Amino acid sequence: MKARAFDYVRVSTIDDALAACARASGDFCYLAGGQSVVPSLSLRLQAPQLVIDISRIKEMRGIALIDGALRIGALTRHAEMLISPEIARHAPLLRLAAPHIAHPAIRNKGTIGGSIALADPAAEFPAVVLALDAELEIAGPDGRRRAKADGFFKGIYETGLEPGEILTAIIVPQFGENDRCAFDELARRHGDYALVGCAIQGRFAGNDVEAIRIAFLSAGPTQKRARNAEVVITGHRLSPKTIADAQSALELDLDPTEDEQTTATMRLHLARVLLGRVLGQFSCDSPRGGGRA
Ligand SMILES: Cc1cc2nc3c(=O)[nH]c(=O)nc-3n(C[C@H](O)[C@H](O)[C@H](O)COP(=O)(O)OP(=O)(O)OC[C@H]3O[C@@H](n4cnc5c(N)ncnc54)[C@H](O)[C@@H]3O)c2cc1C
């Protein structure tokens, strides 16, 4: 099958992208890495009149430490997360999650901005930005704004982006000396979308967990923090009892859905198993960069 005919424009600045969007007389969409939008056009799941190619916008590239926070351009590709020294040092959770996304060919083109803007409930990076307490830098017809990742993911493929808005960068608080992180997921085959995935970042005070953020993917209609499990763990040592209590709390936190891969009950069971595994990697004794990649 081929895409329906559409007009195409490539822009080199955010302002030009917004101007193209303002001029559009019908449906339009942005094109970043193209790893989701191109298959969707080819399968005619969407048929916009205009495709605005934002992949060459320089302002949306680059990774830099600014005022104690890491600014990651929305066009940063998944593969760059694996090799960037800034990511390894200041946002190692992204490095831990990136190898789980698809395959190298897709990671070489797909962008973090595209992944977050699309908000596939099975995507890794939306869960990671929740665990990182990141902020999202957004440009739109009404100017520029920032939004917390918390609350941004509203449902299946549904985010807090207003029509025409562009996600320009992700702002991540700097990784502290006592911070640790871990990521893992369960998938039928490596590279498949996960049956369930879990991202954790937190801070230790001695052996106790001083603060923790736990976010799941593929465990409901959208990526979600496990707030009850976080409460169970905060202020405690990661003993077998604390971990078991956190696993039990997931019943209150998650709203797993049934699909062709597995049932909702099995998904909740897998989420509990996975939480135990990821908490096992999240330890004050683990290397500063977190658990296994
Ligand atoms: C076979 C296959 C397997 C995959 N497996 C996984 C996986 O395991 N995990 C995973 O997370 N992903 C997976 N993906 C998706 C891949 O990671 C995509 O790259 C990602 O979802 C979208 O990024 P992109 O840059 O390619 O966006 P595009 O495909 O270019 O765009 C996706 C959507 O987001 C919009 N958009 C893009 N960038 C922006 C922006 N900056 N601001 C506003 N809107 C924007 C576009 O208009 C479009 O609607 C897979 C894809 C394929 C083809």
Could you explain the architecture of this structure?
- It is globular and about 60 Å long.
- Helix 9 (227-233) runs antiparallel to helix 10 and helix 10 runs antiparallel to helix 11 (264-281).
- Helices cover 31% and strands 26% of the residues.
- It contains eleven helices and 14 strands.
- A hairpin with a 2-residue loop joins strand 12 and strand 13 (208-217).
- The structure holds flavin-adenine dinucleotide.
- Flavin-adenine dinucleotide binds at residues 29-37, 39, 74, 101-102, 106, 110-111, 113-115, 117-118, 120, 123-124, 161, 166-167, 193.
What are the main properties of this structure?
single chain, 293 residues, alpha+beta, Uridine Diphospho-n-acetylenolpyruvylglucosamine Reductase, domain 2, Uridine Diphospho-n-acetylenolpyruvylglucosamine Reductase, domain 3, Enolase-like, domain 1, 5-stranded antiparallel sheet, 4-stranded antiparallel sheet, 11 helices, 14 strands, 31% helix, 26% strand, globular, binds flavin-adenine dinucleotide
The amount of beta strand, in percent, is 25-35%
Molecules bound to protein: flavin-adenine dinucleotide
Distance between the termini: 38 Å
Helix content: 25-40%
Q: Give the CA-based shape.
A: globular
Major beta sheet, strand line-up: 4-5-10-6-7
What's the total count of β strands? Answer: 14
Largest sheet: 5 strands, antiparallel
Q: Total domains, how many?
A: 3
> Uncertain segments of ≥5 residues (pLDDT<50)?
none
Q: Which CATH architecture of the largest domain is right?
A: 2-Layer Sandwich
Structural class: alpha+beta
Average the pLDDT over all residues and give the rounded result. Answer: 95
Rg calculated over all Cα atoms:
19 Å
Q: Can you tell me the CATH topology of the largest domain?
A: Uridine Diphospho-n-acetylenolpyruvylglucosamine Reductase, domain 3
SSE order, one letter for each helix or strand: EHEHEEEHHHHHHEEEEEEEEEHHH
Count of helices?
11
Instruction: Output the CATH class name of the largest domain.
Output: Alpha Beta
